[in-house]
């Protein structure tokens, strides 16, 4: 997954593109590249190198003039992390320059054909075929825009592209197919970007682009076409991104800032959506599908990573409270199964970015099979949000850390709201609805009380920072939280951690346990507490260390385990919104103790827009 950005307008382009790349860096950060075109000198300045943008700006010539620039921050797919593989890539004549996010699946066939025609390639990337392909069509006599269209029709796979040709210095081309790209339209200036965060550098007015669309920004105006050349109407919108969101404030890292924002994010997600006296929820995004929702006989949730764990929490309470058959499918597996879904199935896509390729592909598959699709998405106007039949936005605010935290808790909250919406149309009583919603409103303060223990949890994380392996255990609602805790630790600390249902441990994973393999056990006082304590005893009997998360007032664990973290009492189905907070903090502080770059962990990217 990479970040691409392009500017053409009345200002100096390079500073805008550099600042935009800083905001896009969370999409991929193993190398950086920029091109700026100086219309007066008719010169291209191009600089690219492996490494982070903070290193890049120390050596790049940032004083370069020019009102057109493109930039790229890379997460390597084809070809190693080298200078030659960094973007932009260009053609033989070094006139056509391309930055790309995605994967060109048929690049090898195209490359072989172009090599036979005499094209010289420099990199190992799939991207490099694009400028050469356009160049070849130009050689065959096609007009430039037609050469671009023909090239876009030939390449297969996923892409969001920006193309500049120094023979057409007033023209910047953007195109997308299964890769995110959005156009900002300012006052005589335009900015393309992979997501809304850099757009607000010049405007809040955006044009959403769909797959198979190409935009020609030429001499101060733009036209949108299909790859076949048919004009397409602009889908206009306004982004609500605020500059202050892109700032760490008083926090050292985005991850810890966003963990401390979890209570506020929950308050924002709930605001205006609870009809407490009726024990119901008001979800504006569902009004047009209310009738179809009443006919739903089965719910299938599709998501990846952390989002899939939020969905797993939802699976339990959808069945327990809405009494609807519910299953969770990893989006990357969903389309390769033969899922039994039809027009009585509700497919819920859970995604923070709204751009995850696997989840988007699952949504498209579900739509083809006639299912009703619904998105639980954080980024307004994202591709998944614009593909599903209806949606519920998580108002978590922008999440910049690669490790998702506040998105996880708000996704669960959105699923609770959806469950209540469905359950109260079915058998859920007024009393039950009011009880859940009433307790939901109490949670932000209960989350804040856990955050007050952050220093204690930091000390605990440092105490355990020498261990190389961890086992995370939980039952029922807390098994997905164990999965989330293990993923968080892996992502930011690079320490091996695995999660398993506490009841499953005796069927194999217990073989791992010894004094060098500590366990984090989620053991709130709930319906499965006693069973979970048996698992704790099994671990202790094998000299395994145990950190337990349990309910305030439950003192019995003090004598049984090595360390205890207490969380407030709440409804069993809402426990994950509290029990995850210590695990988010534990992962962050342990990674910091190890000196990790918690906001930009190695090998990862925030939005996985390749399959
Ligand atoms: C979470 O910390 C990870 N960064 C990753 O698992 C993420 O949740 C997953 O890629 C799904 O992303 P999405 O929510 O944007 O679809």
Topology (elements, then pairings):
Elements lengths: L2 E6 L4 H12 L6 E8 L4 E8 L2 H7 L8 E7 L14 E2 L5 E9 L2 H10 L12 H11 L4 H11 L2 E9 L5 E7 L4 E4 L4 E4 L11 E4 L4 E6 L2 E6 L8 E4 L15 H7 L1 H9 L3 E2 L4 E2 L8 H6 L2 E6 L1 H18 L2 E6 H4 L10 E7 L5 H12 L3 E6 L5 H5 L2 E4 L12 H18 L6 H22 L2 H10 L5 E6 L4 H15 L2 E6 L17 E4 L6 H12 L5 E6 L11 E5 L8 H18 L18
Parallel strand pairs: 17-18, 17-19, 19-20, 20-21, 22-23, 22-24, 24-25, 25-26
Antiparallel strand pairs: 1-4, 1-10, 2-3, 2-4, 5-6, 6-7, 7-8, 8-12, 9-10, 9-11, 11-14, 12-13, 15-16
Bound molecules: 2-deoxy-2-amino glucitol-6-phosphate.
The site of 2-deoxy-2-amino glucitol-6-phosphate (AGP) has 15 residues, from α9.
Can you tell me about this structure?
This protein is α/β, with parallel strands linked by helices. It folds into three domains: 3-242, Aminohydrolase, N-terminal nucleophile (Ntn) domain (Glutamine Phosphoribosylpyrophosphate, subunit 1, domain 1), CATH 3.60.20.10; 249-451, Rossmann fold (3-Layer(aba) Sandwich), CATH 3.40.50.10490; 453-611, Rossmann fold. It is built from 18 helices and 26 strands. An eight-stranded antiparallel sheet has the order 3-2-4-1-10-9-11-14, with helices on one face. A hairpin with a 4-residue loop joins strand 2 (31-38) and strand 3 (43-50). Helix 3 (107-116) packs across helix 4 (129-139) and helix 15 packs across helix 18. The radius of gyration is 25 Å and the shape is globular. The mean pLDDT is 94. Residues 304-307, 351-353, 356, 359, 402-404, 491, 607-608 line the site of 2-deoxy-2-amino glucitol-6-phosphate.
């Amino acid at each position: 997954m990479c970040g691409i950005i392009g500017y053409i307008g009345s200002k100096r382009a390079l500073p805008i593109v550099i600042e935009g790349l800083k905001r896009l860096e969370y999409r991929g950060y193993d190398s950086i590249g920029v091109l700026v075109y100086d219309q007066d000198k008719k010169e291209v300045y191009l600089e690219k190198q492996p490494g982070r943008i903070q290193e890049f700006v120390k050596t790049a010539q940032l004083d370069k003039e020019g009102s057109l620039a493109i930039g790229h921050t890379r997460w390597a797919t084809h070809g190693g992390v080298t200078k030659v593989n960094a973007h932009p890539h260009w053609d033989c004549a070094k006139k056509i320059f391309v930055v790309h996010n995605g994967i060109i699946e048929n690049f090898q066939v195209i490359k072989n054909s172009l090599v036979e025609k005499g094209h010289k390639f420099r990199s190992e990337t799939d991207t490099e075929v694009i400028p050469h392909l356009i160049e070849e069509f130009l050689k065959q006599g096609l007009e430039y825009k037609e050469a671009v269209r023909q090239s876009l029709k030939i390449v297969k796979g996923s892409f969001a592209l920006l193309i500049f040709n120094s023979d057409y210095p007033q023209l910047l081309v953007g195109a997308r197919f299964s890769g995110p790209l959005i156009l900002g339209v300012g006052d005589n200036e335009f900015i393309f970007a992979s997501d809304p965060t850099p757009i607000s550098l010049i405007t809040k007015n955006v044009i959403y682009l769909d797959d198979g669309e190409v935009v020609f920004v030429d001499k101060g105006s733009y036209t949108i076409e299909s790859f076949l050349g048919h004009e397409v109407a602009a889908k206009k919108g306004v982004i609500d991104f605020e500059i202050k969101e892109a700032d760490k404030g008083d926090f050292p890292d985005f991850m810890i800032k966003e963990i401390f924002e979890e209570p506020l994010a929950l308050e924002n997600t709930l605001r205006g959506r609870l009809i407490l006296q009726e024990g119901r929820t008001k979800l504006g995004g569902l009004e047009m599908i209310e009738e179809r929702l009443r006919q739903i006989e089965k719910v299938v949730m599709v998501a990846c990573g952390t989002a899939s764990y939020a969905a797993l929490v939802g699976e339990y309470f959808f069945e327990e409270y809405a009494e609807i058959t519910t299953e969770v499918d990893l989006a990357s597996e969903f389309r390769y199964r033969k899922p039994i879904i039809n027009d009585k199935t509700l497919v819920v896509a859970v995604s923070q970015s709204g751009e995850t390729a696997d989840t988007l592909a699952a949504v498209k598959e579900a739509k083809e099979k006639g299912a009703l699709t619904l998105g639980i998405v954080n980024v307004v106007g994202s591709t998944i949000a614009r593909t599903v039949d209806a949606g519920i936005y998580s108002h978590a605010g922008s999440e910049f850390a690669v490790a998702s935290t506040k998105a996880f808790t708000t996704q669960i909250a959105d699923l609770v709201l959806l469950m209540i919406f469905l359950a109260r149309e079915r058998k859920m009583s007024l009393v039950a609805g009011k009880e859940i919603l009433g307790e939901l409103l109490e949670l932000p303060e209960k989350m804040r009380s856990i955050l007050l223990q952050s220093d204690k949890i930091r000390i605990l994380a440092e105490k355990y920072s020498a261990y190389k392996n961890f086992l995370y255990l939980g039952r029922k609602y807390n098994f997905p939280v164990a999965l989330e805790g293990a993923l968080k630790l892996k992502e930011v600390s690079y320490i091996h951690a695995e999660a398993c249902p506490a009841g499953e441990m005796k069927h194999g994973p217990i073989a791992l346990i010894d004094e060098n393999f500590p366990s984090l056990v989620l053991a709130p006082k709930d319906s499965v507490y006693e069973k979970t304590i048996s698992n704790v005893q099994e671990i202790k009997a094998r000299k395994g260390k145990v950190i337990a998360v349990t309910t305030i007032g439950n003192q019995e664990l003090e004598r049984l385990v090595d360390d205890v973290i207490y969380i407030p009492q709440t409804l069993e189905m809402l426990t994950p919104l509290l029990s995850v907070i210590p695990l988010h903090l534990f992962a962050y502080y342990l990674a910091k103790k190890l000196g990790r770059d918690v906001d930009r962990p190695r090998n990862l990217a925030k939005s996985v827009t390749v399959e």
